[in-house]
Amino acid sequence: MQKNMQMLKSKTLLEHKFSLRMKRKYMIFLFIRAIIILSFISFIGFTYYTYGLGNKIILEETIVGKKDYLDIVEYHNLSEKFHAIREEIRNLKQEIHASIVPQHKIKTFQTYIYQNKTGQNLSQEEITPLVISSNVHIFYYPWYKSEIFDGRYGHWNHRMLPNWKVKYERVQPPHKPPDDIGSNFYPKLGPYSSSDPKVLNKHMEQIKYSGAGVLAVSWYPPNLELENEEPVDNIMLKILDSAQNKSLQVTFHIEPFKNRSGENIVKVIKYIIDTYGSHKAFYRTLYNGKLLPLYYLYDSYQISSFEWSKALSHEGQFSLRNSKYDGIFLGLLARQDHMNHLAASNFDGFYTYFAIDGFEYGSTFRNWALISAEAKKLKLIFIPSIGPGYVDTRIRPWNDRNTRKRSNGQYYRAAFLAALEVKPKFLSITSFNEWHEGTQIEPAVPKTFGNYRYEDYLPRSEDFYLRLTQSFVKEFIQQLNNSRQIG
């Protein structure tokens, strides 16, 4: 009996020790599991903070004093997003190192889920917060055609232009798309059609993403296009509708056309207002107490000031002034003597267009301070034009002296800072998609055709110039707001 009791005590003691040992092990297991769970939660929290993978984030955008909810759509397929985020973070580090954008201005590229006014969730890789300004105008070209959409190529097959300084020069054959195009860069969308609704939608997304609020669309009046130029008036409603869908606006960059005169300019302006003036995306801005449309008139110096005055002077024979067709009319300043021509013609202001520093008096950055001072004396609006670079040797092989290298955004930045220095009310960008002259900020991709390698934006990303433009627009808006507070 005593022996049995001893055995029972020993067994109980062993069980107690075993139980304590198991409890310790179990406590250690719980502790380790808690650490793992907390680490996982911390990782999720870090990911949420770093990449913005929230469910619904509502942001407001500032449009020079006006607020609205962002209405953004995604740029890339879902399968590309992780790689895009990783690439953008790497590029942002390079930008900081290169001092392309001030460090305090740089925000991490993130993927958000947005909610628009209707509650619909929209996703897109975006800089936070996105800004857009109707005081920033970007030149847009709607003249491209594709074989798939239009049955033939247009402008992508641009011919080689002869050197006007050489009397006799062998005529070069045109380019042969889709691989061989009249551009030193190759578009991410390929040789697209400007009439394709999908292309237009993508372009409006990208323009909004850049921060430019107004498209200055290259335009010819119907049936008055110059030789070899594509009709564009037939797609203007598509452009206006697509712009409206993205809360953008459209103005007209009127190209030289057949029989351009003071009288015909009046007819053209009346056509624009009667046909498009009631569209919600048709751009107007406040000027001298009036809400007026704004027009860019390219190569305005080709017509005498006497002809322009017929339309633009208050006393002109066909005057547009103080009528429902009145507007803000901007001529092109290329040479220094064009200033007097613009004033005598009764233009309201001028722009410089060319993205070639040193090419003409008007496009030379160091002249902009003098030009701005002269414009103020003459009470003219001065809109400097900036661009990321210039190269047109795929259509003008003899014009390499005017090439301006992009230098990974440094050239574009220099142009912007020169414009910012003169404190303009408006800023114009050359261009969104003038591929022939290599001034585009539209995404481009690396491509090789035979022995020819197209230029690209490497080591930057394909949308680098959209993002860089967005950073410029932020700075420009800040300057406008500061000027208003001081004023």
TrEMBL record:
<dbReference type="GO" id="GO:0000139">
    <property type="term" value="C:Golgi membrane"/>
</dbReference>
<keyword id="KW-0333">Golgi apparatus</keyword>
<keyword id="KW-0378">Hydrolase</keyword>
<dbReference type="InterPro" id="IPR026071">
    <property type="entry name" value="Glyco_Hydrolase_99"/>
</dbReference>
<dbReference type="Pfam" id="PF16317">
    <property type="entry name" value="Glyco_hydro_99"/>
</dbReference>
<keyword id="KW-1133">Transmembrane helix</keyword>
<keyword id="KW-0812">Transmembrane</keyword>
<keyword id="KW-0472">Membrane</keyword>
<dbReference type="GO" id="GO:0004559">
    <property type="term" value="F:alpha-mannosidase activity"/>
</dbReference>
<feature type="transmembrane region" description="Helical">
    <location>
        <begin position="26"/>
        <end position="49"/>
    </location>
</feature>
<comment type="similarity">
    <text>Belongs to the glycosyl hydrolase 99 family.</text>
</comment>
<protein>
    <submittedName>
        <fullName>Glycoprotein endo-alpha-1,2-mannosidase-like isoform X2</fullName>
    </submittedName>
</protein>
<keyword id="KW-0735">Signal-anchor</keyword>
